[in-house]
């Protein structure tokens, strides 16, 4: 029997219905799934019913940034699950945010780079993944989503691996493969990947994008996050040359820059000419672009978000968002007061990596104000963070803060200079108040 036939036979032996596959998960384990399109809906629906029935007990299931509703997002099902098991999240998207608010999910503080090492100490007993179809050598690719989960599994050999094969998941290059012999069970579910809808860029986004783009040199290596501000930055980079990509996430604006000849990767020092990332979320155009494209390499977060690896490139430009900044430079990027809003993700990983990079720059962007439910405007630059706020980026690490009013450089400067810089980019209506508060706090 040829090896190819052997792998096909092994595939058939492991192929089963989702309800049978989840019976392979033992009681009492810590288990996880990927981000976004890496979450396998057929397996998760079957898992939810097994946990809610009490057939599976003592399990802590961790997920992040769900983009497709499953049985795990039905309040009555979750309440039943919580009688026997625990639901956790490492990042709060709209689904997780709602259930964390209700006390039905709990949040796991972490840095994305640390995730795989963290599970090596906690222990991972099972994982559910979405993969591309098997190739003739018996391998499956995690495609758009090795994210943290590939590293979780590799750090915990012997854990139960349930794979949902989806013909719409692109096969990608990099280190994100599993062999059929490693999988505990296989199910099939061919559904289109969720695409990120177009989000209009506002006037504030445009201004912030221009401020950051002006500071991006030719040959820079980009890290862009999700949202309108990174998209606005990319829009204003079309006059640049030889940019590279080493980013936690891949997004559509990178393809736009590639098509304009801006991204070549030729000046990258670490894996030149390669786009390096641990997950992708965007349009079908992005997923098609990634499929079997030798230029694109998908690795786990322990590799991509390692500040050492990031810093091997010169002129790293990291662009992320924050929610609130105090006058000392503390940035609350994942929570509003005590309310978990998103997660730390890889923000600190890339800020540290950019600092290690020769010529590197890390920008944290936010609108200068927000309007509350009563229609009242408030400053996002504040004298002190809201009571109970979680600090994501410490004042020791923050480099540049950007609003629609300009760029504040903080790292290396004392409190007097920081206050001056931050007030200069605050909304004009709040500048006198911030100055008065800074004097009260004896910062100036």
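Q: What amino acid sequence fits the structure above?
A:
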């Amino acid at each position: 029997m040829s090896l190819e036939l052997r792998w096909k036979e092994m595939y058939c032996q492991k192929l089963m219905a989702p309800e049978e596959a989840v019976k392979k998960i033992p009681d009492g384990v810590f288990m996880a799934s990927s981000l976004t399109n890496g979450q396998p809906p057929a397996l998760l629906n079957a898992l939810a019913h097994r946990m809610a029935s009490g057939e599976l007990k003592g399990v802590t299931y961790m997920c992040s940034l769900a983009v497709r509703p499953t049985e795990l997002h039905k309040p009555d099902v979750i309440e039943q699950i919580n009688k026997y098991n625990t639901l956790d999240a490492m990042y709060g998207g709209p689904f997780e945010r709602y259930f964390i608010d209700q006390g039905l999910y709990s949040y796991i503080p972490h840095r994305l780079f640390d995730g795989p090492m963290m599970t090596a100490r906690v222990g991972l007993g099972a994982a559910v993944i979405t993969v591309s179809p098997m190739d003739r050598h018996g391998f499956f690719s995690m495609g758009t989503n090795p994210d943290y989960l590939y590293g979780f599994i590799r750090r915990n050999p012997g854990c139960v691996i349930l794979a949902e094969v989806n013909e719409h998941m692109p096969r990608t290059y990099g280190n994100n493969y599993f062999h059929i012999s490693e999988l505990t069970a296989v199910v099939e579910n061919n559904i289109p990947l969720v695409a990120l809808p177009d989000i209009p860029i506002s006037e504030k986004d445009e201004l912030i994008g221009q401020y950051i783009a002006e500071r991006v040199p030719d040959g820079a290596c980009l890290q862009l996050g999700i949202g309108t501000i990174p998209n606005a930055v990319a829009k204003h980079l079309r006059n640049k040359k030889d940019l590279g990509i080493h980013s936690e996430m891949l997004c559509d604006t990178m393809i736009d820059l590639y098509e304009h000849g801006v991204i070549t990767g030729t000046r990258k020092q670490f894996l030149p000419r390669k786009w390096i990332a641990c997950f992708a979320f965007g349009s079908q155009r992005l997923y098609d672009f990634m499929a079997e494209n030798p230029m694109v390499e998908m690795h786990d977060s322990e590799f991509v978000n390692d500040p050492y690896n990031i810093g091997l490139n010169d002129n790293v430009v990291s662009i992320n968002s924050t929610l609130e900044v105090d006058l000392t430079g503390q940035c609350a990027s994942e929570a509003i007061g005590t309310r978990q809003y998103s997660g730390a993700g890889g923000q600190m990983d890339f800020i540290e990596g950019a600092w290690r990079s020769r010529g590197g720059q890390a920008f944290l962007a936010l609108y200068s104000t927000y309007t509350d439910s009563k229609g009242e405007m408030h400053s996002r630059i504040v004298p002190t963070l809201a009571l109970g706020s979680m600090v994501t980026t410490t004042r020791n690490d923050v480099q540049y803060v950007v609003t629609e009013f300009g760029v504040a450089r903080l790292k290396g400067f004392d409190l007097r200079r920081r206050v001056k810089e931050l007030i200069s980019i605050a909304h004009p209506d709040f500048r006198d108040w911030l100055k008065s508060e800074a004097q009260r706090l004896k910062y100036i």
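Q: And what stands out in the fold?
A: The longest strand covers residues 86-91.
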